[in-house]
Write a structure and sequence with these properties.
alpha/beta; Signal recognition particle alu RNA binding heterodimer, srp9/1; 2,3-Dihydroxybiphenyl 1,2-Dioxygenase, domain 1; globular; 2 domains; four-stranded mixed sheet; 135 residues
Length: 135
């Protein structure tokens, strides 16, 4: 069985604020929008869909049972991406951390979901690409 991770969907409390954050701050491409959901697409085709919890009859239960998410993006230039997002008003939860494999940082969206940006070292990036091609 080959499972390809393609889509992530979650409920949000303030739908309009989250749409603006994903579209304007993170510059995700808006693919479609209904009266209770918005679908975005990342640069590599991954889909993120947010649903307006307020339009669900069990909104409070949905939000209470949904753990906050952690969503990660690989970027080619972490420092430049951090600088761009800071210019757009994003507050980071930590300073950029460096590890043997590369570096990373976390920030939170308006609903307190945590987002990770990471940049592999060039050697690790090439190894990851080679592993993907051989799969």
């Amino acid at each position: 069985m080959d499972l390809l991770y393609r889509w992530l969907g979650f409920y949000v409390k303030d739908w309009k604020k989250m749409v603006a954050f994903l579209r304007d701050t993170l510059e995700l491409k808006l693919q479609s929008e209904d009266n209770d959901s918005t679908l975005f697409v990342t640069a590599n085709g991954f889909q993120i869909e947010i649903f307006d919890a307020a339009q669900q009859p069990n909104a409070e239960q949905l939000l209470a049972s949904q753990n906050h998410l952690m969503i990660g993006f690989n970027v080619s230039d972490l420092d430049a991406t951090v600088a761009t997002l800071k210019d757009r008003g994003v507050n980071f939860d930590m300073e950029v951390q460096t590890r043997a494999w590369g570096k990373f940082v976390y920030f939170s969206d308006p609903e307190l979901n945590q987002w990770q940006l990471f940049q592999y070292n060039r050697k690790k990036e090439k190894e990851t690409a080679a592993e993907s091609k051989s799969s």
